[in-house]
Amino acid sequence: MKLGILGAADIAFRRFLPALKKCSDITYAGVASRTPEKAARFVEAYGGNGYSSYEALIADKSIDAVYVPLPPALHYEWGKKVLESGKHLLMEKPFTASLRETETLLALAEEKHLAVYENYMFLYHSQLQKIKAMLADRTFGEMRLFRMSFGFPKRAEGDFRYNKALGGGALLDCGGYPVRLALELLGDTTRVMQAKLSQPEGYEVDLYGSAVLENKDGLCAQISFGMDNSYKCELEIWGSRASLFTDRIFTAPPTCQPVLYCKRQDTIQKVRLDADDAFFKSICVFQIACTEERFKCMRRREIKQQNILTDQIRRGGKQI
């Protein structure tokens, strides 16, 4: 499979391409940028072609799939063009800026039998697989509560995250991570019971927020997120017999060895895990989805569920 990148984003340069180089089944075609200097930087570091426009990359019939790391407001427009050209779509999160846009792209992908994918890499880190195994083994006893938090300090002036026209806002950016983790741990029946987004005076987007999600069995997840906050990247699990805490659940880089803190009564067990490349694994899952229909359907369903929950949070927890 031959893959091109639509937009010379920093995440594509720092994280995506180093991981892509490890994928023996995917060939890197090149990057499209409206700024020649940015494309030249990619070509110098990773090879491939430098396309002078997004349209030129999409028109290249040798390309089978396209990675889109553009600002969220551009995801629908260019994701639609990618799918209309008959190419598989690997979309950086969030998939689009609205549920309506997401449903349109999912329908188009299904019609054309193409893979679509929302790039929440942390789902494939061995850290999360270990935690899910502990849950399955009832290490914590009866489950009582999940807490997930993801936030970071204010970014530089001009960052797209604070620009409404570019699809900015904490919910669409860092908020998607705890929402996706809550969906993974609570299951398909997850719904938003209560939510609040805060937009301080002088800003055109939400800077922070929180929500309570619940599944059909009454198990809850409390989530919080923000992009003018002290840094947090945490998961807490509270059970009847034990609890767990980890502070690099969403963004552990390939060299990081995450630590799980398991508490039972007055005893705390510190479990250091192996380093893992979640970005590489995520790309591999996308490649499988491109070739197997069952995985295409699974990814479409997950994307829709994620976007339904995001829409419910935007509505303050109202059911749809």
Percent in strands? 25-35%
Order of helices and strands: EHEHEHEHEHEHEHEEEEEEEHH
Kindly report the spatial arrangement of strands forming the biggest sheet: 8-9-10-7-11-12-13-14
Distance linking N and C termini: 39 Å
Give the strand tally.
14
Name the average pLDDT.
96
Low-pLDDT residue spans: none
Q: Which descriptor suits the 3D outline?
A: globular
Secondary structure class reads alpha/beta
Largest sheet: 8 strands, mixed
How many helical stretches?
Answer: 9
Q: Classify the helix fraction into a percent range.
A: 25-40%
Task: List the main descriptive attributes of the protein structure presented here.
six-stranded parallel β-sheet; 320 residues; alpha/beta; 14 strands; 9 helices; eight-stranded mixed β-sheet
Write the layout of secondary structure elements.
Layout lengths: L1 E5 L3 H11 L6 E6 L3 H11 L2 E3 L2 H6 L5 E4 L6 H10 L3 E4 L7 H14 L3 E3 L7 H11 L6 E9 L24 H11 L4 E8 L9 E7 L5 E7 L5 E8 L3 E4 L12 E6 L2 E6 L5 H14 L1 H22 L6
Parallel strand pairs: 1-2, 1-4, 2-3, 4-5, 5-6, 7-10
Antiparallel strand pairs: 7-11, 8-9, 9-10, 11-12, 12-13, 13-14
